């Protein structure tokens, strides 16, 4: 393959360059569409003092919860943290710094970061603790607060298919935060279920163009269900 081939052969190569005190943006929502193998590699590396940006912190013993177990996360920027008892313990003890962010605002922080937009105004959070200390401007008679965008040293993303050039397709609800996270990393690593040759992906179906992606790895996924609900039939 040419120099455009972005496929790496193992997780050590995929996360090479990650060091203590970096910022990692992680795709996924709950346990849906999370980069399981990349998270496990970070745990294996023992990297500490991380700032992690993600919709949530996984659950006890899985997803980003693995990094909490090893006390590798210093600060968590998230919109929902209700499924992780260890997260709650570390927050209340003061061990873990937490920046709670409205979900839509968090998504836009990632998108704006990837688009090179340093900040934006939103009405969400005005008049609440979220807006305290932030610049306020009025547009069309409505107050808005200034929110800064987010860029990460690494973005870790879970895709369905990718070609060797890094073009990525997501499957169904795994499109959650993954496309946004993919644009916002200085180094973006995508873990996928299938790698195909260039030209096999229909261009109109590509969600993340390869220009945003630095590394692609073929992963294996447990795809754990966060909450199993069964009918009473």
From TrEMBL:
Native species: Ferrimonas gelatinilytica
Similarity comment text for this entry: Belongs to the 3-oxoacid CoA-transferase subunit A family.
GO terms assigned for molecular function: transferase activity
Keywords: Transferase
Pfam families, A to Z: CoA_trans
Protein name: CoA transferase subunit A
